[in-house]
């Protein structure tokens, strides 16, 4: 599912916004988007059970690691084979 989201956002950044390097914008967006949900889940868990909230440094570390994870996964990803996977062509 993340591959499909990657390809759809890649098409959005390349066709609609006409960015010079839509690959980087897609990695940044997906990294921040998914790390935000991870941060919310961890923070809610800690607040509910331990009455402790994550500090700003912890939140920034989670966002940085999320972007780094998506960079590591999709850095050498080719976009053309993904179009066949998404559209079944």
Describe this protein's structure.
The protein has 89 residues and is mostly helical. 81% of the residues lie in helices and 0% in strands. It has four helices and no strands. The relative contact order is 0.17.
Global shape: elongated
Helix amount, in percent? over 70%
Low-confidence stretches: none
Structural class: mainly alpha
Radius of gyration: 16 Å
Cα separation of the termini: 18 Å
Task: Please summarize the sheet with the most strands.
Answer: none
Total number of helices: 4
The proportion of residues in beta strands is: under 5%
Succession of helices and strands: HHHH
How many β-strand runs? 0
Mean pLDDT across the residues is 86
What's the gist of this structure?
The protein is mostly helical and 89 residues long.
Task: List the keywords.
89 residues; mainly alpha; elongated
Topology, element by element:
Elements: H1 2-16, H2 22-50, H3 56-74, H4 79-87
Helix pairs in contact: 1-2, 1-4, 2-3
């Amino acid at each position: 599912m993340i591959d499909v989201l990657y390809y759809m956002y890649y098409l959005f950044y390349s066709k609609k916004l006409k960015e010079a390097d839509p690959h980087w914008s897609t990695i940044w967006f997906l990294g921040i988007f998914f790390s935000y949900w991870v941060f919310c889940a961890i923070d809610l868990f800690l607040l509910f059970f331990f009455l402790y909230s994550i500090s700003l440094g912890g939140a920034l570390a989670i966002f940085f690691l999320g972007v780094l994870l998506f960079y590591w996964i999709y850095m050498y990803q080719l976009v053309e084979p993904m179009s066949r996977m998404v559209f079944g062509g």
